[in-house]
């Protein structure tokens, strides 16, 4: 399956929360996520991400999740594989042994909700601001861009001012030159 998402910078969080509440969309309590992003050692920022596997180690409430994403149509339409790992440090070492290099650390507070079959994430990303993500799963052979357009129309139906973003958080942090948090 392919995870397809759209992402928006939120300038008016109260307006967004009101628009979601008007549609009966409830968000979870906030959770803190500590994500370490990894790229193949041969890849550099500025190169295309399409077809390249990227890894992530996420810790949330003491639970560690390992994810690999391979962008298909663009950075936000990816084949995804994910599993829980027992030891973040050992998985970090395994990633280094497999030829991955740590890129940036992403620290955020996330609230999650559902809008039909679509997952909504409201993220407060340290050093970047507040973002709205809509994500859904699509068949591997589906065009991610078409699914993204459908998700975009859902966001526009909220009637709030948002700024669409085409990059992942790691690329946004890198572009903003946000200092790397200590691991």
TrEMBL record:
Residues annotated as domain CYTH: 1-175
Domain of life from the UniProt record: Bacteria
PROSITE patterns registered for this protein in UniProt: CYTH
CDD domains in the cross-refs: CYTH-like_AC_IV-like
InterPro entries with a match to the protein in the record: Adenylyl_cyclase_CyaB, CYTH-like_dom_sf, CYTH_domain
Name under which the protein is recorded: Adenylate cyclase
Lineage: Bacteria, Bacillati, Actinomycetota, Actinomycetes, Micromonosporales
